Each structure stands twice: as C-alpha cells, then as structure tokens.
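cache lookup: miss for this entity combination. No prior model stored, computing from scratch. Input as submitted by user K.M.:
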Amino acid sequence: MYDILLKYISEHATSPITEEGASLIRAAFVYKKLRRKQYLLQEGDVSKYLSFILKGAIRQYTVNEKGMEHIVRFGIEGWWTSDRESFEMGTPSRYNIDAWEETELLQISREKYVELFNTVPAIQEMTQELDRRGAIAAQKRIHSAISLTAEERYLNLVQTHPMFLQRFPQNMIASYLGISPETLSRIRKQSK
Amino acid sequence: MYDILLKYISEHATSPITEEGASLIRAAFVYKKLRRKQYLLQEGDVSKYLSFILKGAIRQYTVNEKGMEHIVRFGIEGWWTSDRESFEMGTPSRYNIDAWEETELLQISREKYVELFNTVPAIQEMTQELDRRGAIAAQKRIHSAISLTAEERYLNLVQTHPMFLQRFPQNMIASYLGISPETLSRIRKQSK
DNA sequence: CTGCAGGATTGATAAATGTCAATCCTTTTT
DNA sequence: AAAAAGGATTGACATTTATCAATCCTGCAG
C-alpha cells in the first residue's frame, strides 16, 4: 500500500529514498477509505491532512448562496488533495472535498509533514517539484478561463485531462469549466 | 539598492540572512532598468531571468490570432516576475512581459538561483513561502473566474488588489478580469 | 420485469457580455 | 494654442451563455 506512495515520491524527487526515510514515511501516513459521496472536508472545517489518492476520484468545490456548486479541482489516483490555505494556515476552509468514487487515501498531518520535510530530502524535493507543476498548471487554467470561450475551454480540457471526462459526469465537468451543463451538452453535440 | 531585496527576503524567510549570504545574493542579482513599453520577455523567447521589481509596474500577457491581449498577471514593486514554465524548463514562452511604467529590476539567472537556493537557507525558505502564497492566490483567482459574474470579479479585485486600479488603465484591468473594456466601463458606472 | 433516480438532452426564452462605431476626455506633443 | 494620441464612455446591435421546463436515457434496486 505504501509502495505506491514511495514509488510516487521517488519519481518526483532527485535523491533516492533511504531505508530510514521509507520507514519515516510509512510511519507518518495513515490509510483512510472514503465511500462514494463521503466528505473528506466540509466548508468551515480546518483541512487537517494532506492526502495522497491511492485509488478513486474526488472533487473540491464551493457551494454558493443559491446552492450552486463550483468545482475548482478534481483529483484521482496519484494526485494530492487538501485545501492548501486551510492546511497551511490552520484557518477554516471555504471548500468542500468529497469522494465521487470510492476512494483510498494516505493522509499526513501538517506537523508530521513538516517533520518529514526537514528529515527526508526526497520529500522536500518532491514538494518543490509539485509546487512548480502546480504553479504552471494554475497559470494555464487562469489563462484558459480569462481568454477562451466555453467551447475552447472544453476542447482544451479534452486535450489536457481526457481522464476527467471518463471519471466524472458531464455536469461536474461543466462546473469545473465554469459553464452550465446545458451549454456543455450543446458544445459536445456541436463538436460532432 | 540591494537593501530592498535583502529586506524583502528576510521578511519572507524564517532564518536570518548571514553577512555571507548577503554577499552571495548581491553578487548573483544584476540591476536592470526598463523604459515604458519595453519588453522584458517576448513570446517565443526563453525566460532567462527571475526578476524582482524594485520600482515600476509590469504585465504578463498573451496575444491571440486576432491581436487581442489577455493579461494573466500584473506586477509592481515588491513582486517577482518571469514565466515560470519557461524559466524552469528552458522552453520558449507563450507570454510577453513588458513594462507599463518605467521599471527597475534585480535579475538572477536560473543557474545562480539554484546555487543560492542550495547555499542560502533564507532563499529556500522565501521560495517556499512564495510558492505557498502563489498557490493560494492562484486557487482564488481560478475560483473567481469560474464562479463569479463579471461584476463580482471586478468588485472582488477592488477588495483584493485596489492598487492595480491605480496603476493600470481600465482596458488592462478589463483584460485581466477577462471582460471587454466596454463591459468594465458599464459595470463601474452601474456600481455608482 | 418494472420503476425510479441520476444524468443528459432539447427547445424556448432571457440575461449577460461582446462588438462596432461614434464621441468625449485628458494628457502629451508640436 | 492646436493637434494628436491614448483611453473611456455611450448607444445600437449581435452573440454567447444561462435559465427553466419538459423529455429522454440508462443502469440498477426492488
């Protein structure tokens, strides 16, 4: 179970994980299983853990006054999830995170993460690598949101994250793109 | 001149900068001045430097086939600029960065940055802090783009970055918000 | 099988936003 | 002081996208 995580870390770090590092990692992460629709985080709560997704699919979203959901992030196996602001600052989150598919996680608390960060070089390197990729991806998504039409954003998603289309229903894809489900349906028909 | 940078770094790091660290920093950063409208980076070029803005105002944007500009980022004194993807990967950038006001920078190359990162703890800490803040800010901007109306996005900008409104013309603010200048003009009239 | 629940699609219509062209300001240049 | 340039505003109109309501699917629970 931890092998998947250890493999992931070493693939995203430059230095290898020592046997001791591996033990520390195994000791710090706790396994958790979520059923479909189960919350990992609810608005108003503090995001206590950073979770590595072993299997399954989750979404992070807000709910506005009118009850409309807006998905800011999807996650599937091999991705991490948490509300970073809440996790790092200890403040209540404005987001919900829940499982769309039955999901298995490995979770670590902030304290243990900081500890690992300072004792296991591969963890530090992986963090930097993920920050880098995250920053680049965020920039692209912002650019897409402000400069493309609904159809272009959809076609872009098909190119960049086709797996999302397999794993999440269309109404969630629409929410992620910032358009209504009806508009997405029409775009898809249009695009043959 | 370097004092502004050193002060900035120490304010965003936990460990203090040693005298030796300060010398290394001074040796690594090079001063550069841009006139109004001068490019710091042009689409197709590689972003060779990470720049700290001492004074002035810049924007990072794309130009599409129709010649329309879309601003993804503003920068003023105390902010950093570069196209991160291009800077880190050495790939040609899709963005332009140019000076809106006359601007003074301190620039560092990737090689020197990596070197500083590995020898000056405060640089490493500052980088982590900036990544954290950048990730949180990016998340908020994505959320704003997919879930708010044009008017709400504008009012949100007024709250979060009022200085942008002072420093950049309205057509650039509109571009940053992903709306047309006419729409922004009408929103502002509307909002009394 | 049958019925239902969760989505997806479709049509009609409304609302938001973009586009184009004219005009109005201001500030800078000559 | 006049002219030019860069923005901002306004009106008319076009286009995109949202909203609402009615079906339509399709998989699965009884």
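stored under new cache key. Residues 121-147 of chain B form the longest helix (27 residues).
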